[in-house]
UniProtKB/TrEMBL annotation:
Its EC number is 2.4.-.-. Keywords: Glycosyltransferase, Transferase. Residues 24-183 form the Glycosyltransferase subfamily 4-like N-terminal domain. It comes from Paractinoplanes aksuensis. Pfam families: Glyco_transf_4, Glycos_transf_1. This is Glycosyltransferase. It comes from the Bacteria.
Length: 363
């Protein structure tokens, strides 16, 4: 446990509420962190899009405007609807100004925003800030994150992501994401394959559909549609023909789905910063066939229940999934994942970081 309970302002990204069913891995990670910190006795003030959980004690300034698309058929995760940032950024400014005005009662800012604004405010807040990088280098964020005043207080979710940012002059230490093993329970396995996550082009679910067709197994897909045109063109035509779409699922239902599957397919078509779905699947005992890109290999480690194949190769993915579906010890798979990615273990590391930052030390 930390030396004393702290008051921590957590700044979430500007796009989706922090609630179940989670919009994506980043939102799930922030949700878990807030819940974990509260369970360990800290007071957490969550600055997030309205409709988020855990905001009952937060000031009104911490409720950011929701993203509203005039036509949901045009919704994507890579753009904002017209006029949204003109509302969201002044709201975030108000939240940061609240922190500045109440610096005496807030110990630390835990920043997960994908926007430079919190970083540019850091020296004015009077409160130490720790920032986590969850994405490949974003041009708008590079200059702010690389400023000398943030040195030692910037973290990346994988060594791969840290190396990418380092090429742009941003030094970040590595703190991998974690999972709540009490919610990702051991499952019995099954015959079907599973794919879960954000349904957007860079996550490659269409390649998972093709790989599943090659195995003759049904692919069950769960997640939020983050790019409607992509889903309509590349996924919907295959539904009912070897693929089922179950929609966004809450954590209990999702854990049951994943744990009741023969193998999880993880198919990023970009340099995946971390690959939280790999750790989540392994924690249920379900093996993983995945594309070897970005931080995926780090999450896989030496686990025998993971097979990595070249990015985009549906045939190799199908062969890997079929092999894994017939081999492996589910209990051992889960035990190894929990030992590496336990939220409880990560909590102790995080509190050490917070204590050092709060004391004004380099972390």
């Amino acid at each position: 446990m930390s030396t004393r309970p702290r008051t921590i302002a957590v700044i979430a990204p500007l796009r989706h509420p922090i609630r179940e069913p989670h919009a994506g891995g980043l939102e799930a990670m922030v949700w878990d962190r807030v819940r974990m910190l509260r369970a360990r006795g800290h007071r957490v003030l969550l600055c997030a899009v309205e409709g988020s959980q855990f905001q009952e004690d937060a000031p009104a300034e911490f409720r950011l405007p929701a993203v509203v698309w005039p036509d949901e058929r045009e919704a994507t995760d890579s753009t904002f609807p017209p006029g949204h940032l003109e509302r969201a950024l002044p709201a975030l400014e108000s939240a940061l100004d609240f922190i500045r005005r109440h610096a005496g009662s807030i110990d630390l800012v835990d920043n997960h925003s994908l926007h430079p604004q919190p970083l540019t405010w850091a020296e004015r807040l009077g409160v130490p800030m720790v920032t986590t990088l969850h994405t490949p280098p974003l041009p708008r964020l590079v200059a702010a994150a690389g400023a000398p005043e943030h040195r030692g207080r910037v973290f990346a979710v994988s060594a791969h992501t840290a190396a990418e940012w380092r090429e742009h002059g941003v030094e970040a230490r590595v703190m991998p994401n974690a999972i709540d093993a009490t919610r990702w329970r051991l499952g019995p396995g099954g015959r079907d394959l599973v794919w879960f996550g954000r349904i957007v082009p860079e996550k490659g679910v269409h390649v998972a559909v093709e790989a599943a067709r090659r195995t003759g197994r049904t692919l069950r897909i769960a997640g939020r549609v983050g790019d409607v045109p992509y889903f309509q063109q590349h996924i919907r035509p295959y539904l009912g023909h070897g693929a089922d779409y179950l929609g966004p699922l809450g954590r209990p239902e999702l854990a049951d789905l994943v744990g009741g599957s023969a193998c999880a397919l993880v198919t990023p078509l970009w340099p995946e910063p971390f690959g939280l779905v790999v750790a989540e699947a392994l924690a249920t005992g379900t093996p993983v066939a995945a594309f070897d890109t970005g931080g995926i290999g780090e999450v896989a480690g030496t686990a025998s229940a993971v097979r990595l194949v070249p990015m985009g190769d549906a045939e190799a993915l199908a062969r890997a999934a079929e092999h894994l579906a017939h081999t492996g010890d589910r209990r051992r798979t889960r035990a190894e994942a929990v030992s590496r990615f336990s939220l409880e273990h990560r909590a102790a590391e995080l509190e050490t970081v917070f204590d050092l930052a709060g004391a004004g030390a380099w972390v």
